[in-house]
Amino acid sequence: MSHPLDLLLSRVQKPARYVGGEVGAVSLGTAPELRAAFCFPDTYEIGMSHLGLQILYGRMNQPAWMRCERAFAPWPDMEALLREHRLPLTALESGDALSAFDLLAFTLQYELSYSNVLNMLDLGGVPVRSAERGGPWPLIVAGGPCALNPEPLADFIDIFAVGDGEDVILELTALLREAKREQWDKPAILRAAARIEGLYVPALYTPAYRPDGTLEALTPSEGAPETVRRRVVSDLDQAFYPTHPVVPNTAVVHERVMLELFRGCIRGCRFCQAGHVTRPVRARSPETLARQGIEALQNTGFEEIALTSLSSSDYPELPALCDALLDYCEPRRVGLSLPSLRADSFSRELMERVQRVRKSGLTFAPEAGTPRLRDVINKNLTEADLMNACAAAFGGGWTAVKLYFMLGLPTETGEDVTAIAELAHRVFLLWRRTTPDKTRGVRVSASVSLFVPKPHTPFQWAAMESGGEFRRRIDLLKAACRKQITLNWHDPDTSYWEAVLARGDRRAGGAIYRAWQSGARLDGWGEHFRPALWQAAFEAEGLDPDFYALRERGPDEVLPWGHIDTGVSRAFLRREYEKALRGETTPDCRTQCAGCGASQYGGECGVERHA
Amino acid sequence: MPDTIRLLFSKTGRARFISHLDLMAVFQRAFYRAGLPLRYSQGFSPRVYLSIPLPLSVGYAGLREPLDVGAEAPVPGLDALPERLNALLPEGISVLSAEMNGRSPGDIVWARYEVRFHTGAEPEAFLSLFAAPLVVEKRTKKKGAVPTDLLPMVRAFSCARSEPEDGTLCAKLELAAQNPTLNPGYITAEFERRMGLMVPAEVTRLGFLDAAGAEL
Ligand code: SF4
């Protein structure tokens, strides 16, 4: 007889996202000692486009004694049917409920997926709060960028993994295997896990608050460390790469092989969390990359390969790597894409080679409209760089350029806002001067996100602008934009709640629970996001969300994520913040080491310093 | 006529929830990986000539579905192709045979289906559907939904309790496959409505017949 879920599948949108059976998915075989499910708290289409999922899924299926499956957040139509028929959320491979697993490993990519974490646990038949789960199984672990401020989810997650996950997850599963064999109780497991570097066990830490609502201290107990040090994989050439990724059976956001050239970033843009929490730069060799990329193309049949790193043009061997890949790709009609090129190193020759198979639009990220504000955020990109890159692109026949900007950056003035429109217009005028063929038209778009201060960045102390102020600045920008520019902007409510959760403390967990209970789901999806639920949930908990989002923190304030040690020192971040407010820039790591602290992890650090 | 490889494949189990467009992409990737000398379109994003002439509705299984893919030249050694492709295809999609330049898909006139209803009802309940004109609102491309008698599009029908008895009623249908197409969903929906069935029927397309009623 068929699985009970099958009868629901004919009644939901996009049923293929729930069925599994893809090329590259793990086969069931004999019962393993330890059963894990990698849980992506968003839809299948988003999760299956994520390289981290493929890496950790492959990694957790390496040991013969364990097996890892996958689970995703259901769309509301499926959730309604599951609840109506009292069927649990299941993992794709076995069709077993999440409650049947030993380990559920969530990745936290985005603050507005927190309600999905709770919802997936509940739908999977797992009590949502750690304290309500009596026995140890399933144990809930979470990693990813949002685990760098774990506190808002501390009530729900048993263990957070900080930093690169591929090694620490197997250290944890080895521990769990032993714990299962010897039937440890949950406190024993948690105590042992807290001794593994990079694992944070929130139950072993007690927060105390000051009368003004700020944190007084977060005190460890039972031998847990004062600070939890981020894990770093130092040799990426030796690190696991999924040359046999799972190939989705249905259209997902990105259907492509993803090659990670390097982790880390030499740049130090002050708003960027990824650039600060993945330091230092660790690169793969071009030989390794070409071999892995070609193997993955052969194993998937994908028609695109993307070079994904924070700033791909900072990869010194980029031309050689592109040549090696194109030798394979061109005759096979496989497109090569380079999503994160910097305008200052834009090479028309390189782009023309890359685009020979498929021509895509070009994107550049000046982030701010004026040189002054670009100095504040340490985005060291000049208008001349941008114009040269665009002139080369237009001359080469490109007809679409997308420019990324941010509104609400610290010290932003009205002049900075309208300068975005003027800069975009100058790009348009440049097209008129440099295009070989005016009849084809051009599309210059400005895509504007709203600045959200993030933990572990120089702006972690900064206040965010209020929704009303954002609306005013968006209106100002709209009025300043000529009709030739296509303007897109983010929703202020979405960005506000992202900010609240990003810098929340452990008390925010109560509000997350209430918001989920009152129906918050898929908050990252405009059509499902209901900010009023979040407002009501925070009020019911006696919390002021503005306290988290809009407040400037003092230099000595105890930060809720202060016990998470990314390797980049607080003193460095503070120095950077103060330089930002003075409009002073900091050179990139290759030009001169700024002494951020990440050199303790090795990598490229210090090499150029002595050169 | 350019050279074409004709495959027959089955789509069963949970793979029946893969949509027509997604299935095209699934095959496309398998063909790339198999390294076949395929014929590509010109232009910006070249595509292989790939056609699944009679798409299955999402949720239906199919046992002998045709697929045509353009080749640069006649491909030798097609006997080994099904096995080679099956190693590259997802669970539930399986290639049964491959030949060069099979009969034109235009020769297909009737499609044979097996339908299982989750009901304890006797076969007569189903057979009575066909006792008088079966008029339902049928969607058309041009005029929207129009009341249509389905009987002229039904070549044959039969029904029995499933053996071994598993709580289902098993019907066999031969329905117009194209110009116009009769989707068995019209018949199953009508029966489910009349009987008040809550669990949707399980539909399997067994194969195709030409105008003379010969199996293709
Ligand atoms: S230690 Fe120096 S070189 Fe290394 S990441 Fe920090 S600033 Fe850059």
Key attributes of the depicted protein:
heterodimer, A: 611 residues, alpha/beta, 4-stranded parallel sheet, 20 helices, 19 strands, 33% helix, B: 216 residues, alpha+beta, 8-stranded mixed sheet, two-stranded antiparallel sheet, 4 helices, 10 strands, elongated, binds iron/sulfur cluster
> Structural class from helices and strands of chain A?
alpha/beta
Structural class of chain B: alpha+beta
Radius of gyration of chain B (CA) equals: 19 Å
Rough shape of chain A?
A: globular
Of all chain pairs, the largest interface belongs to: A-B, 34 and 31 residues
Binned, the helix content of chain A reads: 25-40%
Percentage of helical residues of chain B?
10-25%
Number of helices of chain B: 4
Query: Which residues of chain B sit in consecutive blocks of at least 5 with pLDDT less than 50?
Result: none
Enumerate how many helices of chain A there are, as a single number: 20
Low-confidence stretches of chain A: none
Cα-to-Cα separation, first versus last residue of chain B: 20 Å
Portion of residues in beta strands of chain A equals: 5-15%
User: Which distinct ligands sit in these coordinates?
Assistant: iron/sulfur cluster
Count of beta strands of chain B: 10
Write the element-wise H/E pattern of chain B from the N-terminal end onward.
EHEEHEEHEEEEHE
**Beta-strand percentage range of chain B:** 25-35%
Quaternary assembly: heterodimer
Average pLDDT rating of chain A: 93
Sketch the major β-sheet of chain B: 8 strands, mixed
